[in-house]
Amino acid sequence: MNEILIPLLDIVKGVTFIVDGLDECSQREIQGVLAEFRKILTNPSCQVFISCREGVDVLRGIPGSVRIRITPDDTKADMVLFVDHEIETMQYERPITDKQEVLEHIKQELLKKADHM
Length: 117
Prior knowledge:
Elements: H1 5-11, E1 16-20, H2 27-40, E2 47-51, H3 58-61, H4 72-93, H5 100-114
Parallel strand pairs: 1-2
């Protein structure tokens, strides 16, 4: 980081880092990553977007950061559209079944599991 990335940020302006899945790391790794991003954010042309579950306290790890909370209720309509589209595409390419009740059961199971993502 200090030898390559930080000097590179002096040359390349307007960099946005996107991090997902930080909650899948150990506490030690999380603290290390947040510490590195605190350093990177001293460069005013850099931005960081971190997507993770509630268990990671990004606000404490990066003071001055902002939390955007997205709940399953916020994404439910989009998930329904996505699942409907995927099932329709699969049915077109290689039919799963002709029975509408089976397709509806598949849809409901997928949506139920999507709430835990």
